């Protein structure tokens, strides 16, 4: 997996870095700085960036020793886990590059250090993203004008056909809305004030007046995070997806930070259809939850709402009793481990890899009081006022026109003899201030030990991405609808659909709409 | 003394924050000294010797330099000054002791009298409701206060005054508020998102003055919400915050 050090490769790496500069600056300045009276948010974020810098290259190489970034991307289209977005899509390159940039400004590393690591991390990101976004053909949502159409037609059709209609004031509307509010709030708490347990993709056009957004709520149950052990015992599903049809508005922005915006503004009365699913790397696509009848769906939303509310109250009490170092650990791990599900998919997950603070990063913790954490984060991602981020006065940055740049490229001078170092080194040990993780993982196949989870992950390949189906894309389907091969591919996804089971590959969107309740 | 790569920087300027500038200067000085001590060879220092030479104790010394110069740090998380009161500025308005006199005092709060109503500030309305929201003001600024309400229940008609735009501090009690005045964030902040989802009237980015614990307050949540486009175009669109009656 050694990357060639040549001009072509460096040009590409620096372009990938720059793409993240442009988008990250936009994402950061269109939000306010997030502080919290509960968590030392900026300080734990800064710690997480160092963890990413020191560990991501080694961990990604470990994952790719078993499964390529391209295959991980293919599998990730078939289910909703956190690694997908905002994980790899934004967190992977940016957490890594933010750690690098901070260390450059501390004088601890040079722009010419660890360049094979930098090239590899950016290349992994590129290959995963292109694969994940194969259906819309972009490398990122920014490149698609802040839109993310991850689903193939066969997946979109099942979500579309199985939506239950609802309207403001009816019981399903209320139950769905209440669950999404509770799950959002619980998600913020699980993720230590960040929004990375929540995400959305879409929109998908259902009719001239209706669009569908797919909302994912992730890492809700006892699984990877030690702080959920016990308190989230009653939460049945780790990853929950709510499909949501909206009328009379257009979602013009669905970004990599889990935000969506519509024109006219999306409000509760515009919600006209919902569906409910669970998924992970051990499921055959999305498993419907309570979707056999409207009554069952209402009851399921209410049951899950009760589960997350109870877990939230339990978790809040636990966290309110944490020390600052424990809060720092939980927050930093939440950020750093945003891509941990890649290791689950490959079946090589190790608690010490993902739930510990690397000792090289740990050294910097004493710097991270609230004020320095706040100010250095603000300069790094908002003001772009670190010395390394200043450019010639002729320069005009995208979105700001200022002579600044968030991340330093690799200097091309390494090709003409300037000394460089290739890597930050292998994986070093980690520390934790949190209780040891219980050996219990909630999956779509029930609760299991980590060893069992890794074993089942290594043995399982979803049928839709098996060698014989993996490359049967929507372009191929366009010219082969109705063939045995196409019907058989569609029937995999339709198997658990109450409306489309066995219907094959020839239906149009309007025919799917006509089949709805 | 060893020279660092970043010591020659044609375009770089000092950091905007004096604290960041001081910390980074001290760390760079540390790196120069440790690099010298290790023999001055960068390649063997950067990802090898430096791991043992640049220690947590060294970085603790960086913070100590500012403290020794008389600096006290701003705090944001309540746990921080609770654990290390010696390094942070004093805490106010987080317990019952000083709540009788505490109030947010924002310079850009718009105040004045309009008929029977006394305007005490303004904020960005998150969502429009059919009627303005009236209730009793209660400051909530720490986990200890939230724990108390979690144990005892939130008093009816509470309009929470908060300066944390996040969604976690008040997570277990947010649904019980009649309204929220948040002195921070925007309508797109986590607290704004959650109050909208729960249907709790809320103004974010509030600038207020003179509102005390127990005052009867009213939020103009019938006003137009502030949208993302408003923020991008710097449109001045606010909702008023009134005091209807002072705490008895």
Quick structural overview:
The complex is a heterodimer of chains A (517) and B (248). By secondary structure, chain A is α+β, with helices and mostly antiparallel strands.
Question: What would you say this structure looks like, in words?
Answer:
The complex is a heterodimer of chains A (517) and B (248). In chain A, 44% of the residues lie in helices and 11% in strands. Chain A is α+β, with helices and mostly antiparallel strands. In chain A, strands 1, 2, 3, 4, 7 and 8 form a six-stranded antiparallel beta sheet that branches. In chain A, strands 5-6 form a two-stranded antiparallel ribbon. In chain A, strand 2 (198-207) and strand 3 form a beta hairpin. The termini of chain A are far apart. By secondary structure, chain B is of the alpha/beta class. Chain B folds into two domains: 5-71, no CATH class; 112-245, 3-Layer(bba) Sandwich (Glucose Oxidase, domain 1), CATH 3.50.30. Chain B has helices spanning 18-37, 42-53, 56-68, 79-83, 143-152, 190-198, 228-232, and strands at 112-114, 117-125, 133-139, 158-162, 179-182, 202-208, 216-219, 239-245. A seven-stranded mixed barrel of chain B has the order 2-6-5-4-3-7-8. Chain B is elongated and about 75 Å long. Chains A and B meet through helix 7, helix 8 and helix 13 of A and helix 1, helix 2, helix 3, helix 4 and helix 5 of B.
């Amino acid at each position: 997996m050694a990357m060639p050090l040549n001009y072509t490769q460096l040009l590409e790496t620096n372009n990938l870095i720059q793409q993240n500069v442009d988008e990250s600056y936009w994402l950061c300045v269109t939000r306010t700085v997030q502080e919290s009276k509960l968590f030392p948010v900026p300080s734990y974020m800064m710690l997480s960036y160092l963890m990413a810098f020191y560990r991501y290259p080694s961990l990604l190489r470990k994952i790719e020793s078993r499964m390529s970034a391209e295959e991980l991307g293919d599998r990730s289209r078939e289910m909703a886990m956190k690694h997908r977005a905002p994980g790899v899509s934004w967190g992977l390159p940016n957490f890594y590059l933010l750690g690098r940039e901070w260390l450059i400004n501390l004088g601890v590393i040079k722009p010419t250090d660890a360049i094979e690591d930098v090239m590899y991390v950016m290349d992994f990101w590129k290959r995963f993203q292109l694969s994940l976004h194969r259906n819309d053909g972009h490398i990122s949502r920014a490149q698609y004008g802040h839109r993310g159409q991850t689903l193939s037609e066969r997946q979109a059709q099942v979500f579309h056909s199985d939506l239950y209609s609802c309207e403001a004031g009816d019981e399903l509307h209320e139950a769905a809305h209440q669950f999404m509010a509770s799950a959002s709030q619980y998600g913020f708490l699980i993720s230590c004030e960040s929004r990375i347990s929540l995400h959305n993709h879409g929109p998908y056009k259902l009719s001239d007046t209706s669009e569908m957004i797919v909302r994912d709520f992730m890492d809700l149950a006892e699984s990877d995070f030690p702080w959920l052990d016990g308190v989230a015992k009653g939460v049945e599903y780790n990853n929950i997806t709510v499909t949501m049809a909206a009328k009379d508005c257009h979602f013009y922005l669905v970004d990599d930070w889990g935000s969506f915006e519509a024109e006219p503004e999306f409000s509760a009365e515009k919600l006209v259809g919902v569906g409910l699913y669970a998924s992970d790397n051990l499921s055959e696509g999305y498993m419907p939850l309570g979707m056999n009848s409207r009554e069952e769906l209402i009851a399921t939303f209410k049951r899950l709402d009760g589960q997350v509310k109870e877990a939230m109250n339990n978790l809040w009490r636990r966290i309110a009793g944490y020390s600052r170092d424990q809060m720092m650990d939980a927050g930093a791990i939440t950020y750093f481990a945003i891509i941990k599900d890649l290791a689950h998919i490959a079946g090589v997950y190790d608690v010490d890899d993902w739930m510990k603070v690397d000792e090289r990063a740990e050294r910097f913790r004493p710097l991270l009081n609230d004020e320095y954490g706040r100010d250095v984060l603000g300069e790094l991602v908002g003001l772009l006022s670190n010395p390394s981020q200043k450019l010639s006065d002729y320069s005009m940055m995208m979105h700001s026109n200022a002579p600044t740049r968030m991340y330093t490229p690799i200097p091309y001078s390494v090709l003409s003899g300037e000394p460089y170092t290739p890597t930050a080194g292998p994986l070093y040990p980690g520390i934790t201030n949190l209780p040891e993780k219980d050996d219990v993982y909630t999956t779509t196949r029930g609760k299991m030990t980590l060893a069992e989870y890794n074993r089942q992950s290594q043995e399982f390949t979803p049928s839709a991405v098996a060698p014989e189906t993996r490359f049967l894309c929507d372009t191929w389907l366009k010219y082969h609808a109705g063939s045995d091969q196409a019907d058989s591919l569609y029937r995999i996804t339709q198997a658990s659909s109450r409306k489309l089971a066995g219907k094959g590959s020839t239906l149009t969107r309007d025919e799917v709409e006509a089949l709805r309740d | 003394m060893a020279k660092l790569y970043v010591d020659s920087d044609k375009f770089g300027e000092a950091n905007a924050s004096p604290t960041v500038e001081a910390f980074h200067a001290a760390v760079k000085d540390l790196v120069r000294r440790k690099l010298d001590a290790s023999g001055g060879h960068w390649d063997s220092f950067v990802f090898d010797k430096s791991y043992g030479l640049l220690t947590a104790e060294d970085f603790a010394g960086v913070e100590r330099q500012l403290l020794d110069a008389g600096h006290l740090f701003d705090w944001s998380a309540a746990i921080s000054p609770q654990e290390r009161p010696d390094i942070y500025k004093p805490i106010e308005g987080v317990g019952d002791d000083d709540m009788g006199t505490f109030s947010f005092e924002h310079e850009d709060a718009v105040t004045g009298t309009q008929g029977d109503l006394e305007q005490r500030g303004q904020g960005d309305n998150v969502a429009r409701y059919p009627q303005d929201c009236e209730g009793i003001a209660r400051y909530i600024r720490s986990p200890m206060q939230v724990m108390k309400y979690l144990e005892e229940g939130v008093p009816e008609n509470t309009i929470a005054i908060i300066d944390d735009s996040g969604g976690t501090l008040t997570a277990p009690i947010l649904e019980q508020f009649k309204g929220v005045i948040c002195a921070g964030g925007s309508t797109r902040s986590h607290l704004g998102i959650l109050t909208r989802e729960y249907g709790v009237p809320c103004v974010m980015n509030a600038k207020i003055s003179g509102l005390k614990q127990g005052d009867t307050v009213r939020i103009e949540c019938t006003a137009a919400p502030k949208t993302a486009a408003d923020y991008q175009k710097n449109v001045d669109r606010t909702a008023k915050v009134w005091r209807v009656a002072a705490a008895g």
